[in-house]
Structures are given as C-alpha cells and as structure tokens.
Amino acid sequence: MGNAHKTYRKRARRLYRILIVVSVLALITAIGAFYFYEDGNGPKGNPEYSDPLEAREVGQMEKSIDSVSGFIQAPGLQETITNCTTCHSAQLVTQNRMTKEGWLSTIRWMQKTQNLWDLGENEPIILEYLATNYAPEEKGRRENLEVVEWYVLEE
Amino acid sequence: MNRRKFVKKTTLVAMTGIVGCDIVFGSVMPEGYQPLSLQDPDPFKLFDKDREMVVLNDKPWNMEAQAHLLDDKITPSKYMFIRNNGLIPEDIDVENWVLTVDGESVKQNKSYSLQDLKSKFRHHTYQLTLECGGNGRSEFNPPAKGNQWTIGAVSSAEWTGVRLKDILEDVGIKDDAVYLGYHAADLHLSRNPEKEPISRGVPIAKAMQDETLLAFTMNGEDIPLVHGHPLRLVAGGWPASASGKWINRLSIRNIVHNGAKMGGSSYRIPCDPVAPGEKVPDEDMCIIESMPVKSLITYPKSGAMVSEGKKLNIRGHAWAGELEVKKMEYSIDFGSTWKTCILEKPTNRLAWQHFSVNIDLPKKGYYEIWARATDSKGVSQPMLLPGWNPKGYLNNACHRIAVKVV
User: Fold this and answer.
1) Do B56 and A64 touch (CB under 8 A)?
2) Does the distance separating the beta carbons of A155 and B313 come in below 8 Å?
3) Which of A58, B133, B318, B359 has its CA 20 to 30 A from that of B100?
4) Residues B130 and B110 grouped into a single domain
5) What digits encode the pLDDT tens for the residues B245-262?
6) Collapsing DSSP states into helix, strand and coil, what is residue B132?
7) What is the CATH number of the domain that holds A87?
8) ipTM of predicted assembly, 2 dp
9) Which pLDDT belongs to residue B41?
10) Does any CB of chain A come closer than 8 Å to the CB of residue B384?
11) Is B45 inside a domain boundary?
C-alpha cells in the first residue's frame, strides 16, 4: 500500500467527519427553525391554536396532551399540575376556556372561598399557561349540530 | 425561542430513540405519580352507570347522560347524571345516622335517627324532575366556567320519603323563619373538615310544599350512595343543588341561608339582564329559584337516517320548573313553521311530561327536528341561547336532533 492511498483514506475520513458535523448542524438548525417558527405563530400569535382538538392535530410534538394529567403540554405545565390538580382533577380546568382576566378571577375565587393557597411566583407562569392554552373561542349564539354518527333507523 | 422547551424536546427525542417507544410525556410525569387509568376505579362500575354516560370530571365525580339515554318515562339510576361539589362521603353509618334540625328559627333543636324519620312520619312518593342549574352551560358565549354540561344533567326519578313540612311541624318553627339551609356529610375538595363543599337550601315556602321530601328511596330502592344515601332533600323543579345529598343537618334560618355556594355567582344570575360577558357585582346577583321551561327529544337518537315516504316517530319529555307544560311543538324547518305534539299530563306536580308525534318529512335531505315547550304562563323555550349570565345557568334553548331522509 502506498502513501498516496493512506493520504486519500485520511482525507476521505476527514471529509466524512465534516459531512456528519455539517448534516447534524443542518438538522439542529432545521429543528430549531421549526420550533422558532412554531413559537412565533403558535399559541401567542394565533389564538386559534389554543383549541385542544386542533392542537392535537397541529404538530403532535408541539401541542400534545400530557397523558398523565390531561393538560396540554406547554411551558408552565409542571407548575399547573403541581398547583391545580390536588383538589380536583385537571378535567375541571381543561373543560374551561377563559381570558387571562377570567382565569385570574377564578383563581381569586378559589383563594377566597375554596382554600386555594397563594401561588407566589408561579402565579404568572400558571396564568400565562392557562390563558395561552385554554383561551375562549367565539362560538356565536348557537352552533351547528354535530352528528357523531349517522345510522339507519329501523322502525 | 424557548430554550428550555427545545432542550426538553430534543432530549425526549433522543430518549424516545433509545427506549424505542413513545415517551413524549415522560418528562412531565412527577415521581410516584400513577396514570389515572391505574389509580382510578371504573366509574361506570363504581356508580352502576351505563357506559354511554359521559364523565365530565373524575374528581369530583361529575357525569351526564346523552339525550337518547333519557328515553325512559321514569329515569333509572344508570342514566341519572352525577353532580358533586365535593368528595362523596366515605363511610356512611346508617345505624347511627342522625338528622339534626337547628337554626335561629326553630323553637328547639331536635334530632332524629333514620328509624325515627321512617317510623314517625307518613311516607310519600313523587316523581320529581331534578335538573342541574348549569345544564347546557357548554353553549354559552363567552364561555361560562364550571363543568361543561351539554344537555344530560336532568333526571326524573321516583322519590319516596317523608314530607319536610311534617318534620318542620314536629320540630316547631318560629314565624320569622325565612330559609331552610342543609348541611351534609360530603367532604370539601381540600379535605379540610371545617369547610363545606356546598350548603344550600330553599325558602320556607318551598320547604312547605307537599312534594318537598326528605327521601330515603329512589325508584323503589335505597338511594344509591352517589345520589345521596341515606337521606336526600328533594325539591323538584328547582336547581338540583337545592336538593342536598347525604343530609345530616337542617338549619331553619331567619335570614336567607348563607352557606357555601349560596353567594357570589354560584347558582345565582344577574337580577337584571346583562350583555354577554358583562361583569356583575355580587349585590346584583339573585338566587335561582324555579327552573325554566325545557324539553328534550329522547327518541330517536340524533343522526337517524330514514327512508323517503316513511313517517318518523319522535318522543321525549318536557318540564317547566314549578309550572306545568301546556303545549309542545316541533319544527322541521328551523322554526319557520311549528306543529303540535301529543303532550301527556304529569304523573304529579313537578314530574316531567311525555310528548310524542308522528312526523312527515316531505323530501330527501337533511333535517333538524327542533322541539319547543310552552309553560302554563305562556312562556316558551327560545331557539337561541337565553340571556347570558356569568356562570352559564338556565340554558333552556330548544333541543334539536339531526335526521336525514334517504
């Protein structure tokens, strides 16, 4: 085996390494960009994204439902689980849609009448989480009927 | 960009790769936390409920029926909605159960064992319609808070017990009596024994009605635990929260009872109508008394496809709180025309009434059958949502089902 061949192999290996590094970087950038884009146009930018059903469809990773608590997975989830699921289940929370002001007044009501503690520095985190992920949607005065299943009626 | 989230996500992706299965939720699982499916009993078995019942909340337990489940003339327990404000009492000691009657307006405090109640007073049976004040809440806009009931938080079972007025006569109440407040054995969600989850009641006039019972039997059997065993106050036609479960104390008050869930926006609506979403000060809220006129098509189930030229039979129930329903109509053209249904008389006051009709659907296509009841004062159900209120009570908008002629 000649030197030329050795140098060739060395070069190939170096090139190979660079290729890996470049593609990994590209992948990270792509994922990063994806999340960046999602953040910009997601919960904060577009209120429609807060519908849990839709959220389940839009990017499983971005708005998946935490299978243990039933809450939408998003920043503030842990604080919300810790403070909002000891008395009642998350279902009482996730059924509801409120503005930030509405969520705050619900928290104040529970603090005044239901023994809810002072949430301290977690309050803004929880409020942001709730107002972002469980925001109201315009429903109008009467919605269309939703038919779960059409069936042949035998009489 | 949220760095924490990104790191968490990528770590998870890596972990998923290693474990080879979906652990997307792994990062948020607190230590020692068991998935609900493992720690919770099957609510349908636990409460002997039909599997088509819909669980709104598993702590506290809240469950509603669907329209087609409520087809029976007398609601069986398996289709009866569950509304809990707190935790169901854990040990009920029937042998040593004591009902105490006290308050500012009793001549003297008095206590009764269950046996006393059953043996000292005459028994009465009535079919009584109980509807949650928040039934239909899910339709309000802007959304109202609380459990998002659709249409299934109503029942009409047969209750047997003693008349509240017989007991109050036996105790002796003063002239200044205004309100009856109940106290019960359920536990506040915070598990603080000092706090009551709910302590509501009725004005003395309602307490003195023949049909207002302290019941121990439902549909001929012991009241199921979740519905108030061993003793339930039943005040038909009023928000079901007035019909306290697991009753162990009645207070005869010389003021409007001020127990838990009697104030604020709980079971109260603006005294004067407000615009949707308006803030209403506490002092401008009034306690809900009689429930409004309403009806439900219980047959067929929405989504029926029928052959062209065939008649469609529909049936259901109608009720009107303290009043009687005097007219029942249906429309197949979104309210452009209304035709009358056959409407039965109630079994007794405060029981729901049954209606039925044979409908002609003129041609192929999609229809909605809308049902509209009118009470004895001439007040009908609205087709759109009635007046908005902060907690979304009293939605008595017309029920409708979808039907296709094929």
Assistant:
1) no
2) yes
3) B133
4) yes
5) 999 999 999 999 999 999
6) coil
7) 1.10.760
8) 0.84
9) 79
10) yes
11) no
Q: Please, what sign has the CA dihedral across residues A113, A119, A120, A125? A: negative
Chain A hits for B313, CB-CB cut-off 8 Å, are 155
DSSP label of A72: B
The CATH number of the domain where B255 resides is what? 3.90.420.10
Domain range enclosing A110: 65-133
Instruction: Say if CB B406 and CB B306 are below 8 A apart.
Output: yes
Give the pLDDT confidence of B203-220 residue by residue, as tens digits.
Answer: 999 999 999 999 999 999
Question: Contact B100/B248 with Cβ under 8 angstroms?
Answer: yes
B401 Cβ under 8 Å from any chain A Cβ: yes
Closest residue on chain B to A82 (Cα): B30
* Residue B49 resides in a domain: no
A32 in a domain, yes or no? no
Tell whether A75 is within 8 A of chain B (Cβ): yes
Number of domains comprising chain A: 1
Q: For the segment B24-54, what is each residue's pLDDT rounded down to a tens digit? A: 343 444 444 444 444 467 999 999 999 999 9
Tell me, what's the pLDDT at B317?
A: 98
CA distance B14 to B20: 10
Residue with tokens 């050795």: A6
Domain region containing B101:
58-287
Helices (H) and strands (E) in chain A, counts: 6, 1
Residues B166, B301: Cα–Cα separation, whole Å: 43
Question: Is B350 in the same domain as B308?
Answer: yes
One DSSP character per residue, B13-55 reads HHHHHHH-S--TTGGG--TTPPPHHHHS--HHHHTT--TTSEE
Q: How far apart are CA A110 and CA B309, in angstroms?
A: 57
* DSSP classification of residue B344: P
Do residues B259 and B280 make contact, with C-beta atoms less than 8 angstroms apart? no
Give me the mean pLDDT over the A90-103 stretch: 96
Pair (B260, B317) in one structural domain: no
Residues contacting residue B194 through CB under 8 Å, at least 6 positions apart: none
DSSP secondary structure letter of residue B197: S
Contacts of A155 in chain B (CB under 8 A): 306, 310, 313
- SS3 percent helix, strand, coil of chain A, rounded to 5, is 55, 5, 40
pLDDT of residue A48: 32
Record: contact B303-A68, CB cut-off 8 A: no
Q: Does B301 touch chain A (CB under 8 A)?
A: yes
Q: What is the DSSP letter of B187?
A: B
- Last residue of some domain: B287, B306, B329? B287
B23 near A CB under 8 A? no
Assess contact for B75 and B155: CB atoms under 8 A. Answer: yes
Phi, psi of A42 (to 5 degrees): -85, -135
Residue A122 contacts B, CB cutoff 8 Å: no
